[in-house]
Amino acid sequence: GWLEKKWPQQIALIKLAGRGGWFQQFRVVALLRLSPFPYVMFNYVATITQINFTPYICGSVVGMVPDALVNIYSGRLILALADLKYDQRRMTTVEIVYNVISAIVAVLIGVGFTVYARRALDGIQSAESAQQPEP
Question: Per-residue pLDDT averaged across 34-54, rounded?
Answer without folding.
Answer: 80
